[in-house]
Fold these 3 entries.
Entry 1:
Amino acid sequence: MRADARRNRERIVTAALDLFTERGPGVSMDEIAQAAGLGVGTLYRHFPDRRALVDDLATSTLKGLRDHIRAQTSENVSRWEVLLRVVRYCAGQPLALITSLAGSPPVPPFRAELVREIDELLADIARQAEQEGSIRRDITPEQVVDLLNVMVCRPGARFDDPLTTVMLDGLRAVHIETP
């Protein structure tokens, strides 16, 4: 792809993400083109329809998340810290928006595979955190992944919001010293 075409594509994706985040899923393709400072024809050359644009947004967001998780798991820190870093990263991503825009069937196989890969990475982190004693042992790794999805894929999710804090506190292994 030529450099100017790549820049135009990035402008479209950035404008779409900003508008969807600000105003919700009802934003038109014309509004996205205008916000990107491009003609609607340029937008349609990159994305033949709204679904193609939403699919691109979802895929790039999920790839970024997968890459972030991989990078964090290569760090020599506790798995609990890795989990916290992933939740913190997710809070800055438009996961609730992506889930609402792109979650309707049919989900393309490549995106379903990305989600499966992310869930497996998170389940591995949960298993390792359980082994190190930082996550409770009465919850399965798959249940941890489900809980993480609730934490980060909802509107208004922040790392420091009360719901996230309570869920993280509930996941953390509590070591009570007996007298």
Note: The mean pLDDT is 90.
Entry 2:
Amino acid sequence: MYKYMKNHEKSMMSFLNSKDYDNWNVLIDYHKTQIEFIQHERLIHLIITIGIAIILAVLFNALMLSSNSGLLIIVLMLVAMELFYIIHYYKLENGIQRWYEIYNTLIMRSNSCEFLSDRRMTE
């Protein structure tokens, strides 16, 4: 997932750094669709992270009431899994924040190009 996000960011930045690209609306629509895909991925991971946290809290309370070594192993495995999900969700969240900035830059670039083309037509 991170490789996909980095590749997409890299391609968007290459378009933004290009001086002769002028089809901004198509690029904006494409990038917006990619944002929607990542938002869906982020929502699914949030639901899973919260679900694991709830199960972990219940099992941790059960572990406090009993001294079952099998339950301790399960709780430790869930703690490790929860940490990995939190790290993954953190990376998704930071990635989508960067993508929002790219989207805003695309919108500004599109508006400035429209402004320049409208200005050229009136001259």
Note: Residues 41-123 form one domain.
Entry 3:
Amino acid sequence: MLAYVIPFCLALLGLAAVLSVVRLVKGPDMPDRVLALDTLYINALALIVLFGIWLASDLFFEAALLIAVMGFVGTVAVGKHLLHGDIID
């Protein structure tokens, strides 16, 4: 059963990532693009974790943790730049 569910979920998450890229390119203003980028990295994170479950490899989970930390720091930096105009106070 898991052999059918994991590829289906990978396909759905891939579709979600493609739609996030479309919103990132087409977004009407900067906050929409930042939100699309945040959603894109979360979708990529979910894809990597699901692929790690499928292959039963611990390396993918460590990569997912690294992407999560870098995505969080990037989102905070871009949000602070949009609010104040600079990142370092």
Note: The longest helix spans residues 30-55.
